[in-house]
Amino acid sequence: MIDKSRYDEKKPLDMHNLQFDVAAERLNLTPWIADKIKYSRREFIVRFPLRYDDGRTELLTGFRVQHNTLRGPAKGGIRYHPSVDLDEVRALAGWMTWKCAVVSIPYGGAKGGVCCDPSLLTQSELERLTRRYTWEISPIIGPEQDIPAPDVGTNPQVMAWIVDTYSVFKGYTCPSVVTGKPVAIGGSLGRLKATSQGVVYVLQEAAKILGLDLTQAKAVIQGYGNVGYYAAELLEQMGVRVIAVSDVKGGIYNENGLNTAKVYAHCQKNRSVVDYPEADNITNAELLELPCDILVPAAMEGQINRLNADKIKAKVVVEGANGPTSPFADEILYDKGIFVVPDILANAGGVTVSYFEWVQNVQKLFWTEEAINTQLHQIMTRSFHEVHDICLKENVNMRTAAYMLAIGRVAEAKRLRGIFP
Predict the structure, then answer these.
(1) Residue 174: CB partners within 8 Å, gap ≥ 6?
(2) Which residues, other chains included, contact 41 with Cβ-Cβ below 8 Å and sequence gap of 6+?
(3) Which residues pair with 113 in a beta bridge?
(4) What Rg value do the Cα atoms of the chain yield, rounded?
(5) Domains assigned to the chain
């Protein structure tokens, strides 16, 4: 039996390792294979100077972790946030490995980040930071090696700077080095909404199983960035009443429903959803505990834990963020009968359409948004039912089922590839 007291709920890497250990124990993996695929393959730490607009110069720390490349090139976003450290990046890279495996796309997992506060930087400072960080990690990234993408604190413009910097480094234009870039320089249609679209596709399948009528449902969304906003917009279009949303500064609540576009306009103008005139202000803690049918955590990791899990009142939790629920909270939610669609399945729409973007770049072709969403729907629906079948067969929660599916695929790849020399 696993001694869960060894794992610290506040540490993302501990939570990643516990999730792995719970599933791996059921798979009876060969010990050396289990150790090989649990831990990072390569970790890169860089220190580089940033010159600010006022002439100051400061040394920043950045990371790029390649967790696994057994099933294809490493894939994962780049995060700019004050909390970024090596252990967080390790956890996020691991989650990317399992995410790619659970939807069966030919990638391994990676993640990158710089410890900084992008909200305090000017556009020119962000550009200099991005170009220098790209230069530092350029020896280990590339379209056949490791393909970055946007994450918290980064966006398509940041990806465009990476493309340009890497292309200068190589001596030729190389749009396939990243995904999530602007369409004008090789980005894919449908990529901006892809993670949210995937969230909605798996929610639709969960609703069928639960007998939940989405046109009569109420939703709460934590996080109103790219994933949270587009999830709110898509849910609203389906007839779901979005009653509360939040960002890092706080949340807003209106039992009768929010106009998601108006909230977004308010957020763009005021840099927060807080004080939206047609809703009451609430805290992020209060938002998670609201009575609702659907809860979409789309912010940072560690939001649902053993301290608040018993207060969650949603019927289904669909994880738009990476690592928002601890394994300790999973047990509580499972006992309460709350259906959780785990992050490595629920938010895999982003990396799936990133894969489509990479394929289009490599083949020098461009697909229609309709074709992209059709293929995304097929992959997300198939993956949901593969995980749910394991859930029923093994009598485990959806997260453990998803990890069993993903870990099994990566372990089999290692077994087949063997040891060299």
Answers:
(1) 142, 143, 163, 166, 167
(2) 66, 67, 68, 69, 108
(3) 63, 79
(4) 21
(5) 38-178 (3.40.50.10860), 194-346 (3.40.50.720)
**Residues whose CB is less than 8 angstroms from the CB of residue 90 and which lie 6 or more positions away in sequence, other chains included:** 13, 16, 40, 43, 65, 67, 111
Specify the amino acid at residue 24.
A
The rounded distance, in Å, linking the Cα atoms of 84 and 78 is 10
pLDDT category of residue 2 using cuts at 50, 70 and 90: confident
What is the b/e burial string over 48-59, where b = at least 16 CB atoms within 10 angstroms of the residue's CB?
eebeeeeeeeee
The rounded distance, in Å, linking the Cα atoms of 171 and 211 is 56
| Cβ–Cβ < 8 Å for 272, 249 | yes
Write out the catalytic residue numbers.
111
Q: What is the mean pLDDT of residues 98-120?
A: 97
* Signed CA dihedral, 267, 353, 63, 24: sign only: positive
Residue recorded with tokens 């994450």:
151
pLDDT by residue (tens digit) across 119-165?
999 999 999 999 999 999 999 999 999 999 999 899 999 999 999 99
Q: Are 74 and 67 in contact (CB under 8 A)?
A: yes
pLDDT tens, residue by residue, 197-215: 999 999 999 999 999 999 9
* 241-263 tens-digit pLDDT: 999 999 989 999 999 999 999 99
CA 51 vs. chain centroid, Å, equals 31
